[in-house]
Specification:
Chain lengths: ~500, ~500
């Protein structure tokens, strides 16, 4: 039990908001500078400014570690959990930006707006992970949702991309309407918006309207994390959006979605944990199974990764369901979820970073076009293979440890059946991951392209890919170390 | 000495790293790095074996040797009770040595690999570390980690360098194993959750006595994982494909050491950790029946094959049945025999696969019907093949005989019918092995194979090493038995009361 500091006054609250503020300022500066600079900002200038902004944001977040308080009258939580997500999101955004070759090319249009929007969205996701009341959660969710809808439609001359943006926008509007309804119900039942205040108000057996509110909350956030049955948009949007945006969507947006889900369930609804744990467990089972089974039959590598990311969300939900047991079990499960998200982030960034290049090399997003890729792009194939093996959960990569911690936590919370289901699902998933590796390494290059050479990739992209693959190996090998850090972050949530 | 063990586990991974740093133009240097690394590991393993405290089989006094030996225990992930804990005992040391021996020989056998040699030898070395880790881990999480670490290298080794249907075989291999290990991991978690202190420490878990229901659940879950790997019929169908499609050296490793991982887990965990379930819930008798089925079924299927390599692959299924039968007997001689058979089968099958590889290298066919009268063309290969076959069918004076004899002695008093079936099957084994020899080597030579030559010096040396080991262990069984014995005592101590 860490002692809880008194809430910050308004002026100190601004300091607690510094990471998000610095991102918003950087984003505005980039867009304005680009507008007034002769000829606009170049690729390197954009990347440099964005890196600067993200680094400042991360640096400002670090001193907040261990503060454990709330700001703006409880609207913003300042705890290890929130800081963890701020750092994760800043890092992920940086890697996505570096890998955004196609969107930052000299020929690309609206480059500054792309960078600015990405930074805005990251700021919103940081707020989402730190939201201390329902209103803040809703505003942050909407801000990030709007940015993502725009980013998904970025290739506006591509029908698929515009379709992706529109689809995401419409479905996201519906999901947030449902979410808002759930929030309103909770407010009506408790008269409170603050998560901790709600947690104090709700006691005893759950009323039907509270259960309805719970279902609506799960549906609204379930959309964000693409849990089955709220996953319908995922494959189309993942396939249509520019690949770097897809990468961003699959890691940053999903991670923040899990952050708000965990915070609402653990902080605001601890008294009905048996109910939400059962619901989340069922969602987890459905999400893993549907994601994996549908991934088996995909022919587009981006759609395959979309279904894979649905399945991965299922594994994380196993950890969320495990966070229901009282006391240290919650810390354990939350720590496991955080570690999983960390590992999933680097792994998926490695995979999508490789897909971005592979698409440029082969000119297609079909799995079949990856045949013999190792001969055309050995480094990219290697990074992709590492990413896929990690997604499948093979050691010594981080994906193995992420899954292991989540299942370990679930087993201790009495969800052994879910663990077995999860492991069988991982075995199934290996088939479609290995199929891609098979095509890259085991199948021979089609004759007609044998002489083609690799498209030259900017060093920033190679750097991003190398960092992500290194993370996949290092976080795995040194997982004990990082798991300890996650635990520190987790304890602040459940106090 | 514990440092020696740690170096022996991790040195191959360092070697693999060194190979990865070689420039692409120096690809052929990779085999030298691999040979030096695996040779050094073999020397270290021999040093460990020499330094190991033995207990003669004839000792009547209770076993007092501390197990495990050469242990290292360091914190790894203290939050969940997992540690880096490695050491060797009588069950694991023979397997550890076998792995070092066969990997070294496999590198020599692969000397002519020309397709992406750097990747090939690096993967073989990664595989060596993974398997060495499986046999030396005394922490269940570490064990599982090494267990899974072996998959990806083997997938690529079969899938890239294998025969015609390599992609299919590689995929089947990896899916079967992963599906099995899913159950195994849940089994491990069941034990972990039901111990008073949450820990993956194998020696600690071994000192606990779990409720019978927990034992039964864990037993069955672990069994699925190990049964796929051993393999136990009906979980065996990946084996003929994988062994047949893999390149020669990889078949040697697959049959020689990878199958032993399953049998080792079965003895170490199902028999060693869960004695009541084995004894009172008829799970032991189920094992005995499955073992007998394995022996008979493998032999019958081997008899029907037309492909030289498939004969050997299916004979592996049959021979691993002896291990299962010995383990199921729950007697000191049975366990002793099972481990003896694991080592013996590793060397004999390794040798057989090498011989098949040598024949195939020259004739480029494995179809038995096409081969005829090769003995005059390649006398060394023919006679080595004869020796390997005789060892395989259990000729006295070679290791296979000792192993099978121990298994029968151990199992006959307990499982009369099953053991009788096993003894009877020796006749079938002798039948298909001798028939195979007769067709391939000893019919009238045909002109098609007139141009073929015998083994070169490197090949002769490789083959001779294995024959020497097989004969040495066969003539002086105490060389191996005294090493195994201290590992049997602690397991049997759990069965004495019952």
């Amino acid at each position: 039990m860490t002692p809880f500091l008194s809430p910050l006054d308004t002026w100190s609250s601004v300091g607690a908001l510094a990471p998000e503020l610095s991102l918003a300022l950087t984003a505005s500066a980039i867009v304005l500078l680009d507008a007034f600079w002769r000829g606009g900002l170049g690729r390197n200038a954009l990347l440099g400014l964005a890196t600067l902004g993200l680094s400042i944001s991360a640096l400002l977040a670090v001193p907040l570690l261990g503060v454990n308080t709330s700001a703006f009258g409880g609207a913003l939580a300042v705890d290890g959990f929130a800081i963890f997500f701020k750092l994760l999101l800043a890092g992920a955004t940086m890697l996505v930006l570096f890998a955004s070759t196609e969107l930052l090319d000299d020929t690309a249009r609206h480059r500054a707006e792309y960078v600015g929007l990405l930074l805005f969205c990251t700021g919103a996701l940081m707020l989402l992970a730190a939201a201390g009341d329902l209103l803040m959660a809703y505003i942050a969710l909407e801000t990030s949702g709007l940015s993502i809808a725009l980013l998904a439609a970025w290739n506006k001359r591509d029908v698929r991309s515009t379709e992706a943006g529109l689809k995401f926008f419409l479905l996201s509007a519906m999901a947030s309407a449902i979410l808002l309804y759930g929030m309103a119900l909770i407010y009506g039942l408790t008269g409170q918006l603050g998560l901790e205040a709600i947690g104090r108000e709700i006691a005893g057996a759950p009323s039907p309207s509270l259960l309805l509110a719970l279902a609506m909350l799960l549906a609204g956030v379930g959309f964000k994390i693409s849990a089955v049955p709220f996953q319908m948009w995922t494959p189309d949007v993942y396939q249509g959006a520019p690949t770097p945006v897809t990468a961003y969507l699959s890691v940053a947006s999903k991670a923040a979605g899990f952050a708000v889900l965990l915070r609402v369930l653990v902080v605001a609804l601890p008294s009905i944990q048996a109910d939400w744990s059962a619901l989340v467990a069922v969602l987890a089972l459905a999400t893993m199974t549907v994601g994996n089974v549908l991934a088996l039959v995909q022919s587009s590598v981006k759609r395959m990764l979309a279904y894979s990311s649905i399945a991965q969300a299922g594994y994380v939900l196993v950890g969320v369901a495990a966070a229901s047991a009282p006391g240290t079990a919650t810390d354990r499960a939350v720590a496991a979820v955080l570690f999983y998200l960390l590992g999933y982030t680097v792994t998926n960034l490695a995979a999508f970073g490789a897909v971005t290049i592979a698409e440029r090399v082969t000119g297609s997003d079909q799995i079949a076009s990856l045949r013999g890729l190792v001969e055309r792009a050995p480094g990219v194939s290697f990074a992709f293979a590492i990413g896929l093996l990690s997604l499948a959960g093979l050691p010594p990569f981080v994906g193995f440890f992420g899954k292991f911690y989540v299942f370990w936590a679930a087993a201790q919370s009495g969800l052994l059946w879910l663990v077995l289901a999860g492991l069988i699902n991982s075995a199934i998933s290996l088939y479609y991951y290995a199929q891609v590796i098979h095509d890259m390494y085991l199948a021979s290059l089609p004759d007609e392209v044998a002489t083609e050479r690799l498209v030259q990739m900017p060093s920033a992209h190679r750097f991003s890919l190398a960092v992500a693959s290194l993370g996949v190996v290092l976080f795995g090998v040194l997982s004990g170390l990082f798991f300890g850090l996650q635990e520190v972050a987790a304890v602040t949530l459940s106090r | 000495m514990s440092t020696v063990l740690n170096i022996a586990i991790w040195l191959p991974l360092v070697g693999a790293g060194a190979i990865a740093l070689l420039p692409a133009s120096r690809g052929s240097a990779a085999r030298w790095v691999a040979a030096l690394t695996s040779g050094a590991v073999l020397v270290l393993s021999v040093v460990l074996t020499v330094g190991f405290s033995r207990v003669p089989l004839t000792t009547k006094t209770p076993v007092t040797v501390a197990v495990p030996q050469f242990a290292t225990q360091m914190p790894w992930i203290p939050q969940i009770g997992a540690s880096y804990f490695v050491g060797l005992d009588g069950l694991s040391l023979p397997m550890f040595l076998l792995n070092a021996l066969l990997v070294f020989l496999a590198v020599l056998v692969s000397w002519k690999v020309a397709v992406r040699p750097r990747a090939y030898f690096a993967l073989v070395l990664v595989l060596e570390t993974a398997v060495a880790g499986v046999f030396s881990s005394l922490d269940l999480l570490l064990f599982f980690l090494f267990w899974e670490m072996e998959l990806a290298p083997m997938y690529f080794l079969i899938g890239v360098w294998g025969g015609e249907r390599r992609a299919y075989a590689a995929m089947k291999f990896i899916l079967y194993t992963v599906a099995g290990s899913a159950f195994m991991l849940v089994g491990i978690l069941v034990l972990y959750l039901n111990a008073p202190i949450r820990s993956f420490d194998l020696t600690y878990l071994g000192s606990q006595s779990f409720p019978i229901a927990v034992q039964a659940l864990a037993w069955l879950l672990l069994f699925v994982g190990f049964a796929v790997k051993t393999p136990i019929v009906p979980f065996h169908t990946w084996l003929p494909d994988a062994h047949t499609e893999a390149p020669t050296a990889i078949s040697v490793l697959l049959a020689g050491v990878l199958l032993k991982m399953g049998a080792y887990g079965l003895i170490r965990m199902n028999i060693g950790l869960l004695p009541e379930a084995t004894q009172y819930l008829q799970l032991g008798s189920m094992l005995a029946i499955l073992g007998a089925i394995n022996i008979l079924y493998g032999a019958l299927v081997a008899m029907m094959q037309t492909d030289l390599k498939r004969v050997i692959a299916n004979s592996s299924v049959s021979h691993m049945g002896y291990v299962v039968l010995g383990a199921s007997a729950m007697t000191p001689l049975g366990i002793e025999g099972a481990v003896f058979q694991m080592f013996s089968h590793g060397t004999i099958t390794g040798l057989l696969f090498i011989m098949v590889g040598l024949v195939y290298d020259r004739t480029h066919t494995r179809n038995i019907a096409d081969l005829q009268g090769l003995a005059p063309r390649m006398p060394f290969i023919a006679w080595a093949f004869v020796i390997a076959s005789l060892a395989s069918l259990g000729l006295p004076g070679m290791s296979g005989f000792v192993a099978e004899f121990l298994v029968f002695m151990g199992a006959l008093p307990v499982w009369g019918v099953e053991t009788s079936i096993a003894i009877f099957t020796i006749a079938i084994t002798a039948g298909y092995m001798l028939y195979l020899l007769e067709r391939v080597f000893f019919r009238a030579p045909i002109p098609k194979w007139a141009h073929l030559g015998d083994a070169n010096r490197l090949e002769m040396a490789t083959v001779s090493v294995l024959i020497a080991v097989i004969v040495a262990v066969g003539l002086v069984p105490s060389l191996l038995a005294d090493v195994i014995n201290p590992g049997v005592g602690p397991i049997m101590a759990k069965y004495v009361s019952g």
